[in-house]
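Field log, afternoon session.

UNIT: design team B
ACTIVITY: writing a sequence onto a fixed backbone
BACKBONE:
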């Protein structure tokens, strides 16, 4: 082995060692991974222990075939051996209790002391059935309890007893308490309070002397919350896109799991609330203090299952077993309506705000600001006086187009100036061959500079309109007010308006287009093609190199949008249809009022004027680039 070979092997070894050291995980990354593994292991351990405990209880229940007789010391001993001090709660009979107001009906179950069903009384599903967020085993809530003799039980498997009947408080609120007893004096109450006219209810865990049956130093409870999200709307694919698991950090912003695929997230920081949402409704668990050590998981359900996704949460909450402090929560079961969710932040400042309205996807950055501070206030204003949401959308479109008209006019005038100068541009192209691209471009820019025309002046107005365009794209699918509102042939402005449907699966069509044709989407596409044709006719670059390909791309885009919008909210397609019609009308009106011969004469007069021409920043930068390019060519020669 020669010297060079040895040196080569040494260098390869050094590179591999260096690469390994560089890519080695940091201490923080190792600690985070360890916390994640520990949390997963804890979830699995708790699940296995609960399953084993339930099997033992089922064995006792099958032997006894009735509620246990307290005088049967053998069976009592067996239950106490499995459940410790909570053996008295191991067997019971399922019983439900109901709290309700004008908005919501909440059913409580004594098994687990949990909410087993929620019915929203003002709304229906797309097929006119009562709107139930979850029912029965579709949702589960449990808290893991550890006894001082090392027994691990879960409240989801224990039977609570009502403390008394449902109380109606002085302010009209309804309150109901379920009690989890022990073999001694210790017990724990689950207290539910439903306001007289609100979607937000209170839930408190109030322990009494639980420190006598739980280990010394206990200061938290492990909580498990699982729920399936029902399909409530007509278009499953569209509804699934807006369904997801979202959460808010304490004193921080809102984040979410990936709604497009199965996802799981270990959240080491404190969490204020966790939301299980579909397109228009949410179940939200809000901690008075915080959730800690949270593991969130989202799994997509089969298409024909009747469910969109399954969500699960494994987390911890603070707990004082002595009973000096209760563990409190707020529970929201209601619509994703901006004015409803934003109302819970009234009177709160800074980090105390819940920001529940962030559950509504109004767009990020400037697009969200346009929706919150312009579109939604205008929509609410028209809603006070007009009941037809189709008319409201029409009026909003007119107002938006009037506000944007100065930009539209400026864009048209820029296009008109370029068009009247086209003969002179053609003369430059005929005089200077294409091989001298830099010289041709310089001559063209000199002409534009002399007459005071900027090629970018038509693009800027269009760019300024983009925030409103994208804001409306986010607003209509998220506007709860449009849900099940009809207009003309559209029975639901929040869903597609099919005029033709079929059941046959068609490759490349069904996956992307669906098994229907939406009329508003079709009308929007036709109007966009007409507008494109009109703009291409007015363009001054029809015979430029590459113009043919650009022309076909401009005609192809509306057809592509038809595939995308066919399953979207018909209210959105209706807005774009009306907006495009108004744009076409504005173009014809402006064209009728602009004398292009007079405009060309004005440009020539400006060119012949001795007054110094003020260059735009774009023109100055373009000329600087041309000078540098010419200098480089001279140096090369």
């Amino acid at each position: 082995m020669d010297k060079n070979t040895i040196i080569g092997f040494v260098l390869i070894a050094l590179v591999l060692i260096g690469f390994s050291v560089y890519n080695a995980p940091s201490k923080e990354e190792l600690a985070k991974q360890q916390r994640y593994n520990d949390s997963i292991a804890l979830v699995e351990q708790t699940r296995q222990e609960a399953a084993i405990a339930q099997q033992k209880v089922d064995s006792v229940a099958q032997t006894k075939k009735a509620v246990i007789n307290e005088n049967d010391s053998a069976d009592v001993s067996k239950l106490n051996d499995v459940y410790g001090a909570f053996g008295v709660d191991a067997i019971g009979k399922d019983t439900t209790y109901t709290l309700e107001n004008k908005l919501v009906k909440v059913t409580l179950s004594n098994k687990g002391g949990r909410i087993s069903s929620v019915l929203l009384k003002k709304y229906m599903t797309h097929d006119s059935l009562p709107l139930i967020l979850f029912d029965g085993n579709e949702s589960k809530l449990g808290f893991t309890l550890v006894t001082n003799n090392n027994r691990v039980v879960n409240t989801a498997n224990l039977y609570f007893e009502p403390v008394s009947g449902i109380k109606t408080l002085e302010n009209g609120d309804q309150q109901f308490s379920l009690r989890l007893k022990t073999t001694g004096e210790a017990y724990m109450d689950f207290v539910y309070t439903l306001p007289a006219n609100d979607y937000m209810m209170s839930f408190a865990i109030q322990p009494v002397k639980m420190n006598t049956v739980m280990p010394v130093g206990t200061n938290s409870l492990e909580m498990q919350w699982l729920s399936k999200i029902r399909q409530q709307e007509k278009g499953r694919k569209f509804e699934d896109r807006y369904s997801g698991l979202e959460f808010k950090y304490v004193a921080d912003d809102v984040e979410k799991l990936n709604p497009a695929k199965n996802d799981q997230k270990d959240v080491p920081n404190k969490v204020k609330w966790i939301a299980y949402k579909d397109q228009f409704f949410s179940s939200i668990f809000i901690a008075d203090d915080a959730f800690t050590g949270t593991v969130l998981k989202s799994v997509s359900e089969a298409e024909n299952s009747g469910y969109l996704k399954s969500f699960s949460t494994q987390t911890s909450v603070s707990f004082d077993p002595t009973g000096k402090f209760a563990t409190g929560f707020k529970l929201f079961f209601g619509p994703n309506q901006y004015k409803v969710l934003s109302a819970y932040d009234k009177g709160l400042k800074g980090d105390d705000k819940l920001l529940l309205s962030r559950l509504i996807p109004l767009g990020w950055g400037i697009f969200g600001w346009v929706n919150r501070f312009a579109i939604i206030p205008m929509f609410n204003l028209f809603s006070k006086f007009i009941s037809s949401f189709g008319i409201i959308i029409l009026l909003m479109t007119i107002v938006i187009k009037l506000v944007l008209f100065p930009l539209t006019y400026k864009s048209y005038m820029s296009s008109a100036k370029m068009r009247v100068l086209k003969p002179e541009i053609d003369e430059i192209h005929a005089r200077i061959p294409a091989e001298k691209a830099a010289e041709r471009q310089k001559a063209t820019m000199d002409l534009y500079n002399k007459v005071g025309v900027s090629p970018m002046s038509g693009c800027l107005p269009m760019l300024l309109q983009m925030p409103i365009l994208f804001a409306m794209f986010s607003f209509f699918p998220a506007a709860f007010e449009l849900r099940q509102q009809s207009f003309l042939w559209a029975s639901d402005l929040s869903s597609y308006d099919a005029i033709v449907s079929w059941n046959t699966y068609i490759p490349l069509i069904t996956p992307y287009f669906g098994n229907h044709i939406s009329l508003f989407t079709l009308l929007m596409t036709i109007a966009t093609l007409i507008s494109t044709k009109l703009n291409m006719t007015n363009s001054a670059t029809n015979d430029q190199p590459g113009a043919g390909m650009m022309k076909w791309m401009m005609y192809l885009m509306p057809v592509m949008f038809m595939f995308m919008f066919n399953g979207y909210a018909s209210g959105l397609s209706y807005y774009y249809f009306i907006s495009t019609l108004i744009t076409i009308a504005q173009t014809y009106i402006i064209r009728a009022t602009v004398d292009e011969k007079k405009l060309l004469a004005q440009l020539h007069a400006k060119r012949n004027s001795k007054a110094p021409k003020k260059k735009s920043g774009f023109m100055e930068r373009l000329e600087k680039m041309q000078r540098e390019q010419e200098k480089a060519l001279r140096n090369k020669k």
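LOG NOTE: The two ends are 52 Å apart (CA to CA).
NEXT ACTIVITY: expression trials, pending approval
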